[in-house]
Amino acid sequence: MTSETTIHNALVEAIVARAEGLPLYVRHVLDDLRCGEIDIAALPQKLPPSLSAYYDRLLRRMSIGDLQAVLTPLIVTLAWARAPLGEEILQLMLERRKALVEGEEGRLMLRRALETVQSIIRRQGAGYRLYHPRFQDHIRLNETGVIGQQNALARREFVALVNGWKELDHSGEAFAYSLQFGPSHLADDERWDELLGLLTDFDFIAAKCHSSRVYPLLSDFIRANAAIPPAISAKVQIEDLYRALDGNAHVLSTDPDLLVQQMYNDLVWRWDESSLLGQALRRAAETQSRPWLKRRRGPMMVPDPDLLRVLKGHVGPVNAIAFSPEGTRIASGGDDGTVRLWDTETGALLATLSREEGRVNAIAISPDGNSLADMIREPPDRSSHIIYTRDAFIRVWSLTTATVVGVVDTRQSGGYSQVHPLSGSQFAHRLNSHSAESVTYSPDGLTLAIGTDREIQLRSAGTGELIQVLQGHRALSVAFSPDGQRLASAGSDKTVRVWDVATGRLQLSFTDKLEVYSALFSPDAAVVAVATSAYCAHLFDAHTGEGKWTLFRSNGSIVHKQGRLQAHPHSQFGDRQTWVAYSPDGVLFAVAGNNAIFVRQVESWDVKQVLVDQSSFLRSLAWSPLGSVLATGSEDGTVKVWHATGQTLEQRSP
Q1: What's the CA dihedral at 344, 348, 352, 357 to 10 degrees?
Q2: How far is Cα 328 from Cα 342, in angstroms, rounded to an integer?
Q3: Percent of the chain with pLDDT over 90
Q4: What residues make up the domain containing 110?
Q5: Which of these, 440, 453, 392, lies nearest to 420 by C-alpha position?
Q6: pLDDT digits 0-9 by tens, 468-491
């Protein structure tokens, strides 16, 4: 029988106690032991009591020697930088602060200083930054002594750099840094007047657009709007300018020379010429050297004020829309065979997933936001007498690497394949081929539900292997209940079915009088909402299948019918498709069709907000997890982002 023996080491225990669970402290001790700064015989008495004390000791060391006038300003400048700084911009800033002499002598001194502090900085690309955020925070929060004085000087120098951006070498690092981070430095230092002046300076805006920073420019406006106190009356002017830039971002990202033309023609009809923005716009128009088109009359159609932005990139209709779980990204799929990822806040195109011969008809993003499944339909064989094919398959993408993880062949029970399931002569007879129709993830992200032209397949999201088959109908749409225990499917046979996921048993089946295109559960899982033809939505009790409401796309026409739903009076619209979506809290419900979205309050089913696409017909609809944003895909190839609150502008006004 053996007994456990505990070995106590006073030095190790002293280091652990002072480290307070922070490995950085241990690293500093080991570094000091290696370079001889601490003699092991003097431990543990010579150990700093905490990581903060260690940082103070490191900073005191920099005040000794012939480089003491350079080292502290250098480290503090790196602490306040918003990105790694290269030697060029460091030399410029330290020369302006008289910490370095100018010219070659100053450059050599800077390199010696960087070598001296190499243990507390790290190289990133062509620049330098402090090796750890904790050290950066320690410096920034120090408001006393030499460090406190240097903090104030460093912040002041960054502001001066930004305010003098026009005089900088336009091909240099300092100019690029000022364009990218200038507004952030002014906001950090609460220089509100200078920030407003910079963001209404059309030279600055043009320079940022010409450097391919249109979407980062929109982020500057968003952050400034959040930071500037409401009491500053000029704040409303950057809000107006932001809306104009946001609405024209897709144009300016392609041709930034159109800046003055687009801004003038957008803003001139509602500007105050004496305002900061009015004066800036007038100066920009007067000094514009390139010929531009000036509107003689105001726009005939006033853009919907709830249209936040228009995202352009697809060639052809946008058939599918989905938000990432955190709501910060939008995925769109279209007839051009691409899936595009957009930044919800700025509209920037983040990625384009590879093009296929075909059209993307369905999209689903996994609950962790790391994977995306899409359904792509093969185009018709134009050399054949068959003018339409139902063949389609599922691709699963990694959104981290923008690569295909695997392809699901719904004819096989095995896992993911890397082989295109529609290629090869063995698939020459293509009709009735278990072609995919729809796809969605379960709430826990472990299961993919795939509707096919014969059945519904439940597959492992990790491997693609078939778990279970739900026999029934051609499932045009599949949707899990919020708890993942049930699955709703809408079929081409005009039936909606509710399944028990664990057993595969059919719980409910009810038949609509119209074509059904999609079905989804309400957030409380009490209702199944069905999008039908003729701009209509039917709501059924999710437990009994009893018909509850018929909602039309138009303002009125709400039919309440317990039991069997009657054919609605708008049957003349024929098979025109409808899209439906719930807000995440279940308070609002959107019915979309043709070119309009009607946002209704669930409690009363009254229409609270109408969003109108003035340029095209709708093809897809999704509600953001954040609750106040809708996205639609249109036939003209655009994705539109809307402000959806269920309130009119008058109701939102203070």
Answers
A1: 80
A2: 8
A3: 44
A4: 62-180
A5: 392
A6: 999 878 889 999 999 999 999 998
Task: Write down the residue that tokens 């923005």 correspond to.
Answer: 277
Secondary structure (H, E, C), 96-138: HCCCCCCCHHHHHHHHHHHHHCCCCEEEECCEEEECCHHHHHH
Residue 237 carries which side chain, given as an amino acid letter?
Q
Residue 44, preceding bond cis, omega within 30 degrees? yes
Sign of the CA dihedral running 66, 68, 70, 71:
positive
Q: What is the DSSP letter of 295?
A: -
> 378, 391 in Cβ contact below 8 A?
yes
Residues 85-97 pLDDT 10s:
999 999 999 999 9
- The answer to whether residue 259 scores a pLDDT higher than 50 is yes
In the structure encoding, which two tokens stand for residue 471, read together?
A: 């026999």
Please tell me whether residues 35 and 77 are part of one structural domain: no
- Same domain? 46 vs 106: no
Q: Same structural domain for residues 44 and 130?
A: no
CA distance 607 to 554: 9
Q: How far apart are CA 113 and CA 59, in angstroms?
A: 13
d(CA 280, CA 220): 18
Amino acid at 375: M
Residue 558: C-alpha distances to residues 180, 537, 539, 545 (Å): 52, 10, 12, 19
Please check whether residues 46 and 134 belong to one and the same domain.
no
What CATH number corresponds to the domain at position 468? 2.130.10.10
Bridge pairing between strands 618-623 and 607-612: unpaired
Cα angle vertex 75, ends 111, 83, to 5°? 90
Contact 323, 624 (CB under 8 A): yes
**Whole-structure pTM value:** 0.71
pLDDT per residue over 127-154, tens digit each? Answer: 999 988 888 988 898 877 778 889 999 9
Site of tokens 């043009």: 206
Q: Is residue 265 part of a domain?
A: yes
Q: Give the distance between the most distant pair of CA atoms in the chain.
A: 99
Residues 54 and 69 in one domain: no
For residue 643 the two structure tokens come to 């402000």
Domain count, the chain: 4
| 315 within domain boundaries | yes
Give the C-alpha separation, 149 to 184, whole Å: 21
Same domain, 27 and 161: no
Cα(55)–Cα(59) distance, integer angstroms: 6
Residues 439 and 457: their CA atoms lie apart, in Å, by 10
